[in-house]
Automatic annotation (TrEMBL):
This is Foldase protein PrsA. The keyword Lipoprotein applies. Plays a major role in protein secretion by helping the post-translocational extracellular folding of several secreted proteins. Residues 260-287 form a coiled coil. The chain crosses the membrane at residues 23-44. It catalyses: [protein]-peptidylproline (omega=180) = [protein]-peptidylproline (omega=0). It comes from Thermoclostridium caenicola. The lineage of its organism: Bacteria, Bacillati, Bacillota, Clostridia, Eubacteriales. It is a lipid-anchor. One of its GO terms (molecular function) is peptidyl-prolyl cis-trans isomerase activity. The gene is prsA.
Length: 309
C-alpha cells in the first residue's frame, strides 16, 4: 500500500502522540551498549585480551575503562534515578500491575499502527520491544509517584484548547481495508470472488502484497484526506460504507478497497476534548516535575555520583 504514509506518517504521528512521555521513556541505547559489553566481558578474567590488532592487544580493562569514560556518568545517573524511583515506590506501597503495563503497551503499539511498525521503528534505533517495555514500565512508575503533582487547572485546560483548536478539529475520515496485488488480472480475479460472496479478510490474507496488514484483513484504520495516494483516496472517499470497489490502480499496484466506516468533519469542542487535554498536560507537567522531584530526592537521599564532572 502507500508505504510512505504507513511507515513515515504513522511513525511521526505516533512520536508526536507520545512526546509528552519522552523524558521518562528513557533512551536505553547507551545502557544497552554497557549491558552488551558486560555480557561480553563476563567470560574474561582480569587482564585477559578481548581483541588483537596485529601484535597489539586490547584488554578487558581497557574496554571497560573506555565504556565508563564515554557512557559511565549517564548510565550511572540513570541507575541512580531508577533506584530512587523503586525506593519511593516501596515506601509509598505503590505497584504497577501487569494489566496496567500491558494496557499502556497496547496504547503505544496502537499509536504506531501495530506491532510490526513498532518493531520497525525500534530497529531503526537499535532497540527491541523488550527495551520499550522497560521504558514504559519506568514511565508508569514515575507517573504513579508524581500524579498528585500533575493536575491541570481549568484555566490551563481552556488555554490549551484555545491555542490548539485546529488539532482537536475532526476532519472527514474514512475507515477502510484493502487488498493490494500487482497484476490487473489478479485484481479482477479477487473482485470476482468477492462478488461471489468470498470473505474479504480471507482473500486479503491470501492475496494482498501489503504485508503490514494482510493478516489483519487488510485493515488500514481511519485516514483523512491527504494521507493516501490520490487515486486511492479519491476512490475511498467516494464510496459508501460496506461498498467494495473495482480494482483501483496506483503506483503501488491494484487495490480492492472496502469502506467499513466514515466520520464526518466536526469542529473542536472543549468538553469532547477535555480528557485528552488533561492527559496531554499531565505528560507535559511530568517532564518538568520529574526533574524537580528527582533533584529533591537526590538531596534527600544524599546521593553522590563520583563519575559526575
Amino acid at each position: 500500500m502507500d508505504t510512505e504514509r504507513m511507515d513515515n506518517e504513522k511513525m511521526d504521528a505516533a512520536a508526536s502522540k507520545t512526546s509528552g512521555k519522552g523524558l521518562v521513556y528513557m533512551v536505553v541505547g547507551i545502557i544497552a551498549v554497557i549491558a552488551i559489553a558486560a555480557v561480553l566481558l563476563i567470560g574474561f578474567g582480569s587482564g585477559e585480551v578481548v581483541a588483537k590488532v596485529g601484535g597489539e592487544k586490547i584488554t578487558k580493562e581497557e574496554l571497560y575503562n573506555k565504556l565508563v569514560e564515554y557512557y559511565g556518568e549517564s548510565v550511572l545517573d540513570s541507575l541512580i534515578a531508577e533506584k530512587i524511583v523503586d525506593m519511593e515506590l516501596k515506601k509509598a506501597n505503590i505497584t504497577v500491575t501487569d494489566e496496567e503495563l500491558q494496557k499502556e503497551m497496547n496504547e503505544v503499539i496502537e499509536s504506531y499502527g501495530g506491532v510490526d511498525y513498532v518493531n520497525t521503528y525500534l530497529a531503526m534505533q537499535g532497540l527491541t520491544l523488550e527495551d520499550l517495555k522497560e521504558d514504559v514500565l519506568s514511565y508508569l512508575k514515575v507517573m504513579k509517584l508524581l500524579e498528585p503533582r500533575l493536575t491541570a487547572t481549568e484555566e490551563e485546560i481552556v488555554a490549551y484548547f484555545e491555542a490548539n483548536k485546529s488539532y482537536f478539529d475532526q476532519p472527514e475520515q474514512v475507515e477502510a481495508s484493502h487488498i493490494l496485488v500487482y497484476e490487473e488480472e489478479t485484481a479482477k480475479e479477487v473482485k470476482r470472488k468477492l462478488d461471489e460472496g468470498a470473505d474479504f479478510a480471507q482473500l486479503a490474507a491470501e492475496y494482498s502484497k501489503d504485508t503490514g496488514n494482510a493478516q489483519y484483513g487488510g485493515e488500514l484504520g481511519y485516514f483523512g484526506r491527504g494521507e493516501m495516494v490520490e487515486e486511492f483516496e479519491e476512490a475511498a472517499f467516494s464510496m459508501k460504507v460496506g461498498e467494495i470497489s473495482d480494482p483501483v490502480k496506483t503506483k503501488f499496484g491494484y487495490h480492492i478497497i472496502k469502506v467499513t466506516d466514515r466520520k464526518e468533519a466536526k469542529a473542536a469542542n472543549l468538553e469532547d476534548s477535555r480528557e485528552e487535554i488533561k492527559e496531554i498536560l499531565k505528560g507535559q507537567k511530568l517532564n518538568t516535575e520529574y526533574a524537580t522531584w528527582l533533584n529533591e530526592k537526590k538531596t534527600e537521599y544524599n546521593v553522590v555520583n563520583t563519575l559526575a564532572k
